[in-house]
Amino acid sequence: MSDQRAMTRDLLELRHTFRDLSAVEGWADSLGTEGRRRPYAVSESLEGPEFSVLTETVNGMHRVVAIIAQPKGKDVPPEPASEADAAVLRSLVRSLLDLAGHEDGRARTQVVLTAFGPRVAGCRLGG
User: Fold this and answer.
1) Which residues are paired to 105 by β-bridges?
2) pTM
3) pLDDT digits (tens, 9 = 90+) for 1-57
4) HEC states along the chain?
5) Are residues 21 and 41 in contact, defined by beta-carbon separation less than 8 angstroms?
6) What does each C-alpha distance from 59 to 7, 81, 103, 108 come to in angstroms?
């Protein structure tokens, strides 16, 4: 299979994974809220600190290479505020890549730490 066809397949799987992840987030958010839904979809306004999580994957094993804060103003820290935030970012991104079936290569995932929890704003495989 050519690299281009493999990349196209990976992107299609990633798009389906975003839909699946949104459905799971919706179900999880409705638990304990008596069926009242909170915002969770990517289409919501994502307010909060944003991070790029860079990963390299070999044989399905995802290694977080860097977590980079994306400045929105002048008072943005260069890294997550706590180790707990960093752990959440690593866990979310690894789960996303697992769900997407990403087996090899680099990825850059944008995650926003919102008041409702972390939200994936986007993901780019390769490069």
Assistant:
1) 57
2) 0.65
3) 566 666 666 666 666 666 666 655 555 555 454 544 444 344 556 888 899 999 999
4) CCHHHHHHHHHHHHHHHHHHHHHHHHHHHHCCCCCCCCCCCCCCCCCCCEEEEEEEEECCEEEEEEEEEECCCCCCCCCCCCHHHHHHHHHHHHHHHHHHCCCCEEEEEEEEEECCEEEEEEEEECC
5) no
6) 16, 31, 5, 18
Token code pair at residue 75: 């008072």
* Backbone dihedral angles phi then psi of residue 49, each to the nearest 5 degrees: -65, 135
> How is domain 3-125 classified at the CATH fold level?
D-amino Acid Aminotransferase; Chain A, domain 1 (3.30.470)
